Amino acid sequence: MRRNLRGILFMVLVMLLTISLTTWAEDKLVIVGFSDGDIEVTAAALKALPTVTKDVVSVNSSGTAKKFSITGPTFADLLAKFDKSQSSLEAIRFVAGDGYSIEVPAEVLQNRQIILAYLMDGEPLDEKSQPVRAVIPEERAMYWVRNLVKIEILGVDEQVAVERVHFLETAVGQLETVDYTYYESLDQAVSVQDLLTNLAMTDDSSIQLRAVDGLNKSEDQKIFSNGYIKVTGTDVPLFLSPEIPKGMYVKHILHFIQADAAVISMTKALEGLEQTTLDDIEGINVVTILDALGVVKNEIYRLIADDGYFVEVNAADLSLGIIYLDDKGQVRSYFSGLPKNTGVKGLLTIEAVK
Ligand SMILES: Nc1nc2c(c(=O)[nH]1)N[C@H]1C(S)=C(S)[C@@H](COP(=O)(O)O)O[C@H]1N2
Ligand SMILES: [Mo]
Asked: For residue 143, which ligand has an atom nearest its CA?
């Protein structure tokens, strides 16, 4: 009996210690990446800052809206304490304790107020949101990071012009697919690493993703290349990974751009870009595609097929051409009034020839 009691007491002690240690470990926010050193802010220090209280509406990726009121200091006020300013930052990354993370771009940093909320509707945050939830009113809920434990100060990648466009469907056709279980469905996916390697996209800069519903998102190169693009079943093309929370998945990818290369889904382009009919073929004008991706203006463009076949077309003739999916789902080009050899089957790449 005595022994039992002691055992229980010991267990309780261990539990209390564990609880206080974990609470303590998550009870602070670190800001890393400033040249003059990291900043550690305890929850108590955050609460000592002046606060704002705001009625906000969070909108998630499915369009569901939730209304509540939040209270906390602004990120700008916190930075001011350390003689820093939010608007002078190029980009930051919010990192949560649960593995969720998201990059906040310069446009958001320059135009929006960021609130480090520790009260919701006047009450302390729920367990999984503590110690703070970043709230950016007027931005999508993907930026409203619960359980915020780290803020990374990032530099921006040097802007380079897009010089080549790859068609996702053709590129995927050159790769091995793997089984990927998505909810109740067994689907096929390709490794992003394989895809990028195959397309000689070896840069380590961030990837700019755009979904067909207009969502734009910048993803870290390592996170992106460690993931998969699911190509069959629902929500495709879908960026996902067993290593990241579902909130980081990107559904219905229209295109993604990294450095001088872009990858576009023709299936999604047919939904998201303006369609045209040319000599009874329905597709998208070549110029529409190149403009959507911001491809550089050049005199000659090369169209390359998956078997290595290629043909060159003058810039002046580009608007005579469309890209379409044939009845086998293959990407093809067709130019009205140009020689038949400009009709490329299994189109993989369009690149500006220097
Ligand atoms: N820590 C953490 N914060 C997060 C996420 C997450 O998975 N983990 N998901 C984000 C996404 S994608 C959305 S849409 C919202 C969802 O917020 P809700 O659960 O309050 O609806 O939280 C954002 N903040
Ligand atoms: Mo989301």
From this structure: 1
Residue 180 C-beta-side C-alpha neighbours within 13 Å: 24
User: Which structure tokens are listed for 281?
Assistant: 């073929």
Query: Which atom of ligand 1 is nearest to 66's Cα?
Result: 21
Q: Is 141 in the pocket of ligand 1 (CB under 6 A)?
A: yes
Q: Is the CB of 120 under 6 A from ligand 1?
A: no
Ligand 1 atom index nearest CA of 128: 1
* Cβ(101) – ligand 1 distance below 6 Å: no
What 47-50 contacts at long range (C-beta under 8 Å, 24+ apart), as own/partner pairs, is 47/118, 49/73, 49/77, 49/78, 49/81, 50/77
Q: Is 133 in the pocket of ligand 1 (CB under 6 A)?
A: no
User: Burial, 116: exposed, middle or buried (Cβ in 10 Å; 0-12, 13-18, 19+)?
Assistant: buried
- CA separation for the pair 30, 152 (Å, rounded): 8
pTM of the predicted protein model: 0.92
pLDDT, mean over the chain: 94
Q: What is the DSSP letter of 236?
A: -
Residues 210-235: pLDDT tens digits?
A: 999 999 999 999 999 999 999 999 99
Determine the average pLDDT of the residues in 185-203: 98
